[in-house]
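thought: fold this chain, then report.
action: predict
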Amino acid sequence: MLTRTYSGQFENLASISEFVAQAAEDAGFDRAGIYAVKLAVDEACTNIIEHAYGGEGSGEIQCTCNIARDELSITLRDWGEAFVPDSVPEPDFDVPLEELRFRGAGLFFMRKVMDEVHFDFQTGDGNVLVMVKRK
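observation:
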């Protein structure tokens, strides 16, 4: 299990992406699996910075990668505002492009590319997001 902590800055998204990509590679994922992990983590961290912290520089993102026999588990922890994931509607992609609203698209893509996505806002020690990708 490897853990790194990053300040909530958009410039750190590339470093976080490299960290999880290396973990996915070490876990034996192919290029498509590595891309899926990077996409999900990038979306999650962007949401943490924008929504939990309300902008850059307001807090930290702790990222833990745990490699098991047939899966990679990524845990993201922040200490910002919690939210109710079920309150975020899925985006409607069946509308003309000019009417498309992207609110909720990040959460939608995270759920589509990962095998499991779990939120825990009741821990008393920050907000926890666990995402699992299986081979």
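thought: worth noting. The chain has three helices and five strands.
final: tokens above.
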